[in-house]
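Working notes for the structural subgroup meeting. M.R. asked for a predicted model of this chain before we commit to crystallization trials. I am recording the input and output together here so anyone reviewing the notebook later can reproduce the run.

Input as submitted:
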Amino acid sequence: MRIKRSSWSIPYAIFLALFVVMPLVMVAIYAFQGRGGGFSLEQFSRFIHTPEDLNTFMYSIEIALITTVLCLLLGYPAAWIMANSELNPSRITILLFILPMWVNMLIRTLATVALFDFLKAPLGEGALIFGMVYNFLPFMIYPIYNTLSKMDKSLPEAAKDLGATPGKVFTKVTLPLSMPGVWSGVLMVFMPTISTFAVAELLTMNKVKLFGTTIQENINSGMWNYGAALSLIMLIIIGVSTLMSGEESSRENETGGLL
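Returned structure, recorded in token form:
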């Protein structure tokens, strides 16, 4: 009996239903559930009227923005050098940047704590930002490098032939064409940074609390409904950011990134 090709997708559909769709549905149900068990916006109202949680949320966004900007400033030049065969003829450099992604994030964070310990440097906000950049920098470099390495090399060459300076070639050709990779890198760094909690706890000795820690504390203390509401807020932000990034990347691809 010949098995249809579509039948191979059944195990994946079951897996997605059990471990992706069902948890999201449960989060939504708990988030909109009041004390009496019925539909309620009580949990979201509580979030709005809890200054501590709002301040933690805004602080998490601030840390995420700082981390993303630093990763972009460090990652774009690195990706450009890696994609330029004249400046980086060896593939070993690419491997060195990818290698840290093979190590668990908690192990990398513990190594950062040990480094600060060795240097007698205090753990706090500075250590947190350093650890965030160290952990998420490869996620910024790789998508930008991937985009730059696939870019049509004849376009910058044509711009040079037409008399464009190296600065103009970069701003008018290379940078616009690399924007899909930049948007992907920004998304891959910004979103996990907001929701992380273990990195903040280890690198600040629990002195600095991010939004992910607030969610964890509420769920651990049995306040499932409030924790689910906070998680849903985070999911909505991630979803909106992903859609915006996807639309921006599509627009860049349609226009060739040169408009």
